[in-house]
Amino acid sequence: MIPHMLTYPIPEPARGGSPTRVAAGVHWLRLALPYRLDHINVWLLEEDEGWTLVDTGLGSRASLQQWRELFRTVLRGIRIRRIVVTHYHVDHLGAAAQLAAERGLPVLMTATEYRMAGILHERTEAQTTAVRVEQFHRHGLDMSRIRAVRDAGDHYRSMVPGLPAVDTFLADGDTLRIGGRDWRVITVGGHSPEQACLYSAADGLLIAGDQLLPDINSNVSLRPELGEENPLGDYLASLDRLADLPRQTLVLPSHGVVYFGLHRRMAGIVAHRRRQHVRLLQACAEPRSAADLLRVLYRREPDAFTLGLAMGEMMAHLAYLHHRGALELVSDAPLRYRVRSGYPGWNEIADGDWFDSPSH
C-alpha cells in the first residue's frame, strides 16, 4: 500500500496516555505491547450513563498496571459502562476478564470468537504448541525450525489469564445504541473467524479491529482449532462486504493511525494478495510445500515468533489457491501442491478476474 494514497487526519494519538478525541464522543487511547508491533488502539465511546470501552489490551501484569494507572490519572472520574471485544486475540481480549471483574462490567463479543478463546484457554500452552507443531510438520517444516517454534511456545493463556462471562453475544446486523449513535455490527472473517467491526452510518466511522490496518497487512492464518478450510477466502469476502461503505468513511484501526481511504486500502490489499498468488503459482510448477515456499514471499528468514505467523499465512494461501482450483495436492508426506494440470496459469489473477466480486 502506498502511504500517500491514504489521508491521516490525526497523525498520532496524544502522548502520555491521554485519550485523543477522534469525533464527538469518540476517543482514542493507545496501550503499549511488548512486541515488534508495540501498541494497540482501544476506543472509548462516551455516553451519559457511562462510557463503552472497545478492546482491552493484554491481560499481563504490566498491561493491568497500565490500566490501573490510567484510571487513577487521565480516566479518573470516568465510569466505564461495558466492554466490547472485537475478537479473541490476546491484545484485544486479554484484560477483559480482569477489568470486568474489578468494575462489574458486562462484556459483549461474538459467539464464534468467544468459542475460539475457550478452545485455546482450555488447553495448556504446551498442548496448543503441539497442535501447531504437528500442523507445520505436515506442511514440510524441518525439525530445526520446528524446535524453534516449540521453544518459542504459545502464550495465549498467560496473556489471556481468564475469560469473562459474556453478557451479550453480538451478531452481524445488530445495533448498539451508544452515546446517541447507532453502531451497526459488521462481522468479518479471515484474520479471526467472526471479528466484530462497529459502523456509525450517521458519522461515517468504522471501528475496524485488525481487518483494515493502514500500513501493514493483517495476518490471515490457517488454524486447525475450528476446522478452518479457507480463511483467506473468508477475508477477501469480508472486504467485499466492507466495500459497500461510503468512500468518506473514517477508519479506526487497532494498530497504526486513523485514516480516510477505505476503498483505496482494500484495493491495495487485494493487489498485494494477487501479486503473491502469481509468485506462488509460478513457484508451484514443481510440487512445493508451505515450508518450501516461505522464501518465495518472505525475503528474510523469520524468527521463531514470526515463523508461526508466516507458516500459518502460507498455509492459508495454499488452501485458497487449492480451493479455487489452481493447485492440486500431489503429496501427503509432507503436503505438497503444484499447479493443476490444464489450469490456464496465473493470467486470471494478473488480469484481475480472480476474486469473486468486481468491486475490487
Task: Kindly list the characteristics that best describe this protein.
about 350 residues; alpha/beta; Metallo-beta-lactamase, Chain A; six-stranded mixed sheet; 12 helices; 15 strands; about 35% helix; globular; disordered C terminus
SSE layout:
Blueprint: E1 20-23, E2 26-32, E3 39-45, E4 51-54, H1 61-72, E5 80-84, H2 90-93, H3 96-103, E6 107-110, H4 111-122, H5 125-138, H6 143-152, H7 156-159, E7 166-170, E8 175-178, E9 181-188, E10 195-200, E11 205-209, H8 231-242, E12 250-253, E13 259-260, H9 262-283, H10 294-297, H11 304-323, E14 327-332, E15 335-339, H12 347-350
Parallel strand pairs: 4-5, 5-6, 6-7, 11-12
Antiparallel strand pairs: 1-2, 2-3, 3-4, 8-9, 9-10, 10-11, 12-13, 14-15
Helix pairs in contact: 5-6, 6-11
| Strand order in the largest sheet | 1-2-3-4-5-6-7
State the fourth-level CATH superfamily. Answer: Ribonuclease Z/Hydroxyacylglutathione hydrolase-like
CATH class, anyone? Alpha Beta
Report the β-strand fraction as a percent range: 15-25%
> How is the CATH topology named?
Metallo-beta-lactamase, Chain A
- SS-based structural class? alpha/beta
Number of E-type strands: 15
The rounded Rg comes to 21 Å
Count every helix, treating DSSP H or I runs of 4 or more residues as helices. Answer: 12
Number of domains: 1
Bin the helical content. 25-40%
Mean pLDDT over the full residue set: 91
CATH architecture: 4-Layer Sandwich
Distance between the first and last residues' Cα:
15 Å
